[in-house]
């Protein structure tokens, strides 16, 4: 069992700095939110560029670097990456398919008390609608490191959604497997599951891990990639697990993973545990802000029980 | 390190003069205005001499990239690329038609066009990114953006200028086609760009002011100075070359009948 040592965004910085030891085309771009003592800056100062608070220009400049043969990783908070710079992402990564990797910490409401200006509950909907951009929501240090390696090795544009500073015990994933493969974290104990929980992102995955232990007829699958192509690839393995699905995702219902899965699996009921329609206007920790939005252990437990008809095994 | 540059660069310059090429390109622009869709003729005619001179000087240089940021002048870009042999087919024959890549704003699926532009401001940042790549790689390649004066109203331009200054991109050249017009009228009537020279100087650029229809002047101006990024304020005339269009703000977009196109082409001086 692997233990957690780093948050996703710290794992990103460290892994990218490691990769750059042997991949000279990698450049690391920041928009004044990379923090001090950035490991890439320390180890590769000539390829570390803090472009300042300029997200649109930053993404476009990354596209120019990619056109010239570099592999730029550019990072800023999810709200600014996916929303403020949306048109640059649409054109450079989506339409033109430039080999740019957009790394977005502060996904969902992981900014906690920083408030709505720093939250991104709409980013997956926005990025997914642009098409052709790989969207990864890794959980824990190991999966984050793998996603960064996969992004660096790929010529596809990437949007990588991370959280803030929380660190979680990494999921057990076979050493040779790609993060594009669905990970079945825990299977139903007695035969075919009555319900499959599909988790997206760190908080959702933690909730599902906790609750699957309590429901013997529920299986938990974790999806790291949630772009439309990846979701299409999940259909067959999902159907082998259960007939009904509850997607748990720190996002709006609109444009979330559940809505797309429902479109491509019309013969299966797809439900959603999401962050609802309210604005996260209150302070608190990440988990507390989620709780204010109705996203958490107890409401999810109730939703599962409701879907199981009150007959399951808690 | 290998570059992802498409194989589209200009052949060695054959004998025709820049004036001859510009005249040929203007005819093509007029032909595109005579298609069922029409085209942004005014800005295409104002920018064409800048494009012709820029491609003559750097079109053969695989380390340099020329990006038309004022993408509504796509007809001008297509015409320039065609007269240099970069585009294989006459754009006027299929401009705007169903199934044609000759769209009303530059299409990156075409040879010689690395970026789709037209949403204003982005092309300037793409060129800055290219310049940054060449600086990192240690080549003498340039990132050359050609934009409009109305386009300067976009915040992205100044966000990019800030980065160009901060990153000391002395291999970045920004040519502004100052034709004085924009979609809804004169720039001065809508949102004037005053003290433009001083603005660019404040962002650390060396500023050169030229006649944007004089090929020799353009050719000379598109030269890095080794110290600062360059802003070239090219004074141009919207609709240049067609008397009925010159200086007319209504010349921004036009769809004209074939007989008028024929007369305008004959009248080109």
Automatic annotation (TrEMBL), chain A:
InterPro entries given in the database record: PDH/Transketolase, THDP-binding, Transketolase-like_Pyr-bd
Keyword terms of this UniProt record: Thiamine pyrophosphate
Cofactor requirements of the protein: thiamine diphosphate
Domain called Transketolase-like pyrimidine-binding: residue spans: 6-170
SMART domains for the chain: Transket_pyr
Domain of life: Bacteria
One Pfam family from the record: Transket_pyr
UniProt family annotation: Belongs to the transketolase family.
Name of the protein in question: Transketolase central region
Organism: Paenibacillus curdlanolyticus YK9
Automatic annotation (TrEMBL), chain B:
Database matches in InterPro entries: THDP-binding (IPR029061), Transketolase_N (IPR005474)
Top-level taxonomic group: Bacteria
Family annotation (Pfam families): Transketolase_N (PF00456)
Positions of the Transketolase N-terminal domain: 23-259
Gene3D superfamilies xrefs: 3.40.50.970
Record keywords, A-Z: Thiamine pyrophosphate
Keyword Transcription regulation: no
Required cofactor(s): thiamine diphosphate
Family, similarity comment: Belongs to the transketolase family.
Name of the protein described by the UniProt record: Transketolase domain protein
């Amino acid at each position: 069992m692997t233990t957690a040592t780093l948050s996703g965004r710290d794992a990103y910085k460290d892994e990218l700095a490691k990769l750059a030891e042997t991949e000279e085309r990698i450049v690391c771009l920041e928009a004044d939110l990379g923090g001090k003592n950035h490991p890439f800056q320390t180890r590769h100062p000539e390829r570390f560029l803090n472009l300042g608070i300029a997200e649109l220009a930053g993404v476009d400049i990354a596209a120019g670097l990619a056109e010239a043969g570099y592999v730029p990783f550019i990072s800023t908070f999810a709200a600014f990456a996916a929303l403020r710079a949306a048109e640059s992402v649409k054109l450079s990564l989506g339409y033109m398919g430039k080999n740019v990797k957009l790394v977005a910490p502060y996904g969902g409401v992981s900014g906690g008390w920083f408030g709505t200006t720093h939250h991104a509950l709409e980013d997956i909907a926005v990025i997914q609608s642009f098409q052709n951009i790989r969207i990864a929501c890794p959980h824990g240090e190991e999966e984050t490191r793998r996603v960064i390696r996969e992004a660096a090795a790929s010529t596809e544009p990437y949007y990588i959604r991370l959280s803030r500073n929380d660190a979680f015990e990494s999921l057990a994933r076979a050493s040779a497997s790609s993060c594009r493969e669905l990970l079945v974290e825990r299977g139903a104990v007695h035969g075919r599951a009555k319900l499959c929980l599909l988790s997206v992102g760190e908080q959702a995955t933690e909730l599902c891990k906790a609750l699957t232990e309590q429901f013997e007829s529920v299986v938990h699958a974790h999806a790291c990639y949630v772009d439309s192509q990846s979701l299409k690839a999940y259909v067959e393995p999902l159907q082998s697990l259960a007939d009904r699905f509850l997607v748990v995702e720190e996002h709006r219902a609109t444009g979330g993973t559940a809505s797309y899965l429902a479109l491509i699996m019309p013969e299966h009921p797809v439900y959603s545990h999401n962050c609802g329609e309210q604005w996260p206007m209150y302070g608190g920790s990440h988990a507390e802000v989620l709780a204010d939005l109705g996203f958490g252990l107890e409401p999810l437990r109730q939703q599962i029980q409701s879907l199981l008809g009150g007959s399951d095994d808690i | 390190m290998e570059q992802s540059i498409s194989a589209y660069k200009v052949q060695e310059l054959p004998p025709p003069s820049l004036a001859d090429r510009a005249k040929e390109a203007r005819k093509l622009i007029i032909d595109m205005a005579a298609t069922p869709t029409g085209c942004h003729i005014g800005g295409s005619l104002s920018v064409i001499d800048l494009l012709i001179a820029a491609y003559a000087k750097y079109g053969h240089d695989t380390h340099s990239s020329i990006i038309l940021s004022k993408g509504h002048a796509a007809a001008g870009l297509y015409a320039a690329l065609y007269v240099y042999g970069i585009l294989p087919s006459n754009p006027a024959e299929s401009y705007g038609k169903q199934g044609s890549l000759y769209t009303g704003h530059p299409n990156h699926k075409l040879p010689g066009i690395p970026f789709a532009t037209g949403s204003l401001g982005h092309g300037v940042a793409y060129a800055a990114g290219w310049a940054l790549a060449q600086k990192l790689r240690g080549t003498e390649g340039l990132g050359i953006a050609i934009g409009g004066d109305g386009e300067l109203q976009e915040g992205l331009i100044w966000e990019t200028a800030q980065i160009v200054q901060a990153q000391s991109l002395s291999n970045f050249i920004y040519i502004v086609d100052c034709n004085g017009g924009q979609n809804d009228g004169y720039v001065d009537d809508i949102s004037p760009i005053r003290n433009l020279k001083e603005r660019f100087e404040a962002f650390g650029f060396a500023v050169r002011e030229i006649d944007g229809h004089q090929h020799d002047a353009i050719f000379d101006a598109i030269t890095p100075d080794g110290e600062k990024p360059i802003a070239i304020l090219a004074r141009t005339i919207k609709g240049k070359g067609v008397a009925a269009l010159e200086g007319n703000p209504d010349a921004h977009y036009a769809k004209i009948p074939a007989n008028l196109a024929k007369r305008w082409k004959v009248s080109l001086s």
